[in-house]
């Protein structure tokens, strides 16, 4: 085989193995940075914009969905979808949608969409009401701590922590 043909073969083989999950791609290695279900849906299908506009959790719809950082976000309306698509970083939850209190403990815990807070224009989610209550006792301190810790654990898998 010529070297040119070997190079093409190697590229095709690498692409095939990567797309089958046999070689981790960059996209796959960073997906742990966002808390998603098996269908890549974030926040258990809840509308991230509703936390800001309606001041409550609202279940989104597959009809109104958008992708951001490898996750699929669902919205209750086309208007909410448009707001999100205009500035997704404004509405996406902090710490990739993992439990804000868990991050302060160097862990990536799942969330309950009903355990939430918007602080200084940012959405924080927690594991449950118990974690939310502990996190609420020192929101600012927990946010400062979480921000520093997140830089170290963002791309680590749940099992590594």
Automatic annotation (TrEMBL):
Signal sequence segment: 1-21
Q: Which UniProt keywords apply?
A: Signal
What NCBIfam families does UniProt report for this protein, alphabetically?
YHS_seleno_dom
Q: What is this protein called?
A: YHS domain-containing (Seleno)protein
Protein species of origin: Glaciecola siphonariae
């Amino acid at each position: 085989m010529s070297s040119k043909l070997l190079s093409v073969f190697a590229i095709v083989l690498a692409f095939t193995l990567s797309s089958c999950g046999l070689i981790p791609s960059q996209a796959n290695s960073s997906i742990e940075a966002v808390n998603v279900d098996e269908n890549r849906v974030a926040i258990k299908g809840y509308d991230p914009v509703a936390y800001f506009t309606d001041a409550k959790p609202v279940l989104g719809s597959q009809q109104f969905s958008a992708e951001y950082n490898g996750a699929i976000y669902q919205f209750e309306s086309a208007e909410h979808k448009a707001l999100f698509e205009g500035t997704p970083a404004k509405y996406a939850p902090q710490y990739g949608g993992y439990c804000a209190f868990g991050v302060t403990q160097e862990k990536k815990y799942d969330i309950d969409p009903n355990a939430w807070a918007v602080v200084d224009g940012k959405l924080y989610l927690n594991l449950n009401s118990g974690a939310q209550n502990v996190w609420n006792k020192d929101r600012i301190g927990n946010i400062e701590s979480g921000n520093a810790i997140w830089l170290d654990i963002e791309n680590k898998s749940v099992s590594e922590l």
